[in-house]
Every structure is written in structure tokens, then in C-alpha cells.
Amino acid sequence: MVGTLFQRGLALASAAVLCSSLSACNAGAGNADNGGGAVRLSGAGSTFVYPVMTRWIQGFSQAHSGTQINYQSIGSGGGIEQVKNRTVDFGASDAALPDDQLPAMGGVIQIPETAGPVCITYNLPGAPAAIQLSPEVLAGMFLGTVKSWNDPRVAKDNPGVKLPTLPVLVVHRAESSGTTAIFTDYLSAVSPAWKSGVGAGKSVKWPVGLGGKGSEGVTGQLRQSPGAIGYVELTYAEQNHLPEAKIRNASGAYVAPTAAGTTAAISAFSAQLAQDPRHSIVNPPASTADGYPISGLTFLIIPKDGPDKAKRTALKSFVEYVINDGQSTASGLNYAPLPDGVKQYDESQLKTLTAAGQPIQ
User: Fold this and answer.
1) Which one-letter DSSP state was computed for residue 152?
2) What is the DSSP string of 97-132?
3) Residue 41 three-state SS
4) Where are the domains of the chain?
5) Could you write out the three-class secondary structure of 212-254?
6) What are the contacts of 191-200 at 24+ separation with CB within 8 A?
7) What fold does the segment set 4-114+297-359 form as a domain?
8) What is the DSSP letter of 35?
9) CA distances from 280 to 58, 104, 106, 140, 299 (A)
10) End-to-end C-alpha distance for the chain, whole angstroms
11) Which letter, b or e, does each residue of 98-135 get, where b requires 16 or more Cβ atoms within 10 Å of its Cβ?
12) Which of 199, 174, 180 is nearest to 188 (CA)?
């Protein structure tokens, strides 16, 4: 059973989305954007971005009373599929689509909306709140070659710490997930055995472990399973008072997952991101002493064209809010704000959106 603290946090987040939708609908009844009624937008996808998406919806709805937005946190893979089928107005994914997958999407833009760290969390009674893990040990745990918490390799990362004799129990996402894509991208970057044997992607064949549905499912498994280790968004870990491991980066420093650490990772790849914002930001080089190595950008995926001018205009306005005013909201929720160069890229892509083939003003 998922812990009470998580249920409370999830309920608050869900209530926030419902509240923002209802307030937009009620206020919009007398101030319509679409022939006398509220313009209704739907989105789906990333759980990673769900906490800040909730706040973005609230903030935008307060200033645009005629727009109602509903977002379903179903995982990046599900969001991509719904955009492909045109059952939602926009999707969110922590894994950008590569060029060879774009033709099947029927014409979309994909723009970074925020960035953040993937947190390695664990359930280890008696251990300190922030154990340290090297890339080799972390990959070994998820490969199944580091089987116990008192393995000498774990102890080497944690001098002076008494580690329990519990077996390592891996918990991973069960469904197609952008958070999985970021984490497995990192493991592929630091472990040749992982890269050749498992690889990176939104869904992989896990060598060991149990699957949980969504971040809430992973969190639930962790809370009830001593010895468990898994990966979730930092916000989920903090909402549930789960410990956060420090990961050794390429400079040799053990760093905690923070928005500042993600910002440092973004800065390390600024030249590559200027060429293509889809570039990975995991495992920044040794010159980035404070960079958190398991960081990723998250993307909005939006159809280039749609038939309803009112909806398309409202959608463009919402996305402009997200990449500008919404960045300060993201900073307060453990996300890293977008650098100016990426925001300029986003603005240029938004100019290509159309409604029934005509530019959106």
C-alpha cells in the first residue's frame, strides 16, 4: 500500500488540478473565449513534470479565466501515443523524439519546458539520510551484480558507515517512462556492461527488480520494502520524506540531486544544446564539479496544426506562459529554469504553430 504521506501529497496535487479546472470553467462562463463557453485543453504524459504542471495550470487559469486545462500524469510514453493519435492537445515527455520517429507523429514541435534531477532513493533502516553511490555500484545494483547493501563496493563509497546485510531490491518503472529514459541514458553513459546488455530507452528489459506503475507506484514499493532502491523525481522523494543518495559525478564529487546541480549540467552542455535542445545532459564532464549526473530536460510535444483556432490560440498562450513566467514557479519546485538560449529556441518553434493552416496571432 502506498504510504499515507504520498497519498496526501498526490491528493493535494490532484485537487489543485481539479480546482484550477473548475475555477477556469466557472469564471469562464461569463467571459468566454470560445463562443460563450470555456476553451478546454487536454494534455497527458510525463509524471516527472506533473508537480510543476499542476502549478502552471493554476497560474495560467488565474489570468485566463476562459481556459480550462486538464493534464493526465500517465507517463511519457502514454503522452506521446496520445499526441500521435490526436486525443490530446499537447503531450509532455522526458525523452525527446529522435528524427526517425517524427514522421509517424503527423507533424509536431517538441520544445524543452523545464529540467530536473532524477533522484536515487532507497529504504535502508539504520543508514544515513544520504548514502553515497559511485556509478559502478549504482549500475551494478540495477544489473544485479551488486546484491547486498554490505557489499565491499558499497562500503568503499561510504567509509565509516555501518551498512545493513539486507539484499538489494531494485524497483523500476513498469510502463514506458521518460524518467526511465533519463536514468537508463545515464547508466549507458557510465557502464559499458549496461550499454551493451540493456541500453537506454523509455522502456527496457530490466535484468532484475520489481516494477511500479508511475512514480507513485515506485514510491509505494520503496516504502514497504526494506533494502529497496529506485529512481523517482526529486519532488516525489521530498513529498514522501524519502532519503536521497549522493551520486559520484565525473569530477569525483558525490553530489545530491538539486535544481542547482541540474543547472550546472545544462551549462556544461550549452554549446550542444544550442545546436539541438534534445542533446542529453547526463554525466557532465569532470570540469563540472557541482553537476548532478542524472539530470534531464523535459519536453512539450505539440501538433503543428489543429482545426480549432480558439483552442490553438489558447494552447500557444499557455506554452508561452510556461517557458517565460512559469520558469520561476519551476525553480521553486526542484526544477531548473531554462537558459535563455533554449527559451529563444522555444519561441521560434511556437511561431510555426498554425490553426487550420493559418498562422496563430
Assistant:
1) H
2) PPGGGSGGGTSEEEEEEEEEEEEEEE--TTS-SS-E
3) strand
4) 4-114+297-359, 118-295
5) ECHHHHHHHHHHCCCCEEEEEEHHHHHHCCCCECEEECCCCCE
6) 191/135, 191/136, 191/139, 191/143, 193/139, 193/143, 194/139, 194/142, 194/143, 197/143, 198/143
7) D-Maltodextrin-Binding Protein; domain 2 (3.40.190)
8) T
9) 30, 23, 24, 22, 12
10) 49
11) eeeeeeebeebbbbbbbbbbbbbbbbbeebeeebbbbb
12) 199
Compute the average pLDDT of residues 36-61: 92
pLDDT in tens, 122-168: 999 988 778 999 999 999 999 999 999 999 999 999 999 999 999 99
Where on the phi/psi map is residue 322: left (φ > 0), alpha (ψ -120 to 50), or beta?
Answer: alpha
pLDDT digits (tens, 9 = 90+) for 243-260: 999 999 999 999 999 999
- For the chain, the C-alpha Rg in angstroms (whole number) is 21
Backbone angles phi, psi at 93, to 5 degrees: -145, 140
Specify the pLDDT at position 216: 85
Contact (CB, 8 A) for 67 and 18: no
Q: Do domains 4-114+297-359 and 118-295 have the same CATH topology?
A: yes
pLDDT value at residue 235 = 82
CB 299, CB 110: distance < 8 Å: yes
What per-residue confidence (pLDDT) applies to 3? 37
Please tell me the predicted confidence (pLDDT) of residue 303.
98
Antiparallel, parallel or unpaired: β 108-122 and 228-233: antiparallel
Secondary structure, 3-state, 248-314: ECCCCCEECCCHHHHHHHHHHCHHHHHHCCCCCCCCCCCCCCCCCCCEEEEEEEEECEECCHHHHHH
pTM assigned to the model? 0.85
In CATH, which superfamily holds the domain spanning 118-295? Answer: Periplasmic binding protein-like II (3.40.190.10)
